[in-house]
């Protein structure tokens, strides 16, 4: 069993724009893998419509449940050890996937933050936008926005990353997302920042 017990604390994450999937790691980890991801996604779909006081109609719950299931399998398959946050304004929107992970501090702070955010990515089509980012819970970090090409596609990927090294817990934390829908990531930018500010570290 991994002896690194710190996990990401999501207690203050706003549930309205996010559907949160904990790590689907093995039973030895802090979370048990779902026995029936399909049933879980259906329950989440029902809650989404109910929480937003919207009428799903005859097919709304099924549509959202299938979307959540596909996202879970694509972005957080069994065995994955990161958190998955799915952002949408309306239950039927195509979710923007955002991932977050934590691990033991891996090196000097400045160098590690640049590595985790890919601040010096040679594939970036233009110099990445690198900014300091301070969180009350995680301290001084770094955020990077960059565009990278996709193999076999004329569309660029817009990528956002946040990273922190938390000396108190000897931990590195990274949050990331990428999409070719630039307008989508811009529209979600304030929610992304609020999510980054709300993440913390919980040590049992």
3D structure, described in words:
It contains five helices and nine strands; from the N terminus they run ββααββαββββααβ. The protein is an alpha+beta fold and 204 residues long. It has one domain (7-199). It has a seven-stranded antiparallel β-sheet, sandwiched between helices. Strands 1-9 form a two-stranded antiparallel ribbon. The longest helix is centred in the first third of the chain and has 16 residues, at 60-75. It is globular. The model has no long low-confidence stretch (mean pLDDT 90).
Write a concise synopsis of the structure shown:
This protein has 204 residues and is an alpha+beta fold. The protein contains five helices and nine strands. Helices cover 27% and strands 30% of the residues.
Strand content: 25-35%
The biggest beta sheet is recorded as:
7 strands, antiparallel
Secondary structure: number of strands: 9
Whole-number tally of structural domains: 1
Helix content: 25-40%
Uncertain segments are: none
Helix-strand sequence: EEHHEEHEEEEHHE
> Overall 3D geometry?
globular
Oligomer: single chain
What integer value in Å does the Rg equal?
Answer: 17 Å
Distance between the termini: 15 Å
Q: What is the typical, i.e. mean, pLDDT?
A: 90
Specify the number of helices: 5
The helix/strand class is alpha+beta
Q: Please list the strands of the largest sheet in the order they lie side by side.
A: 2-3-4-8-7-6-5
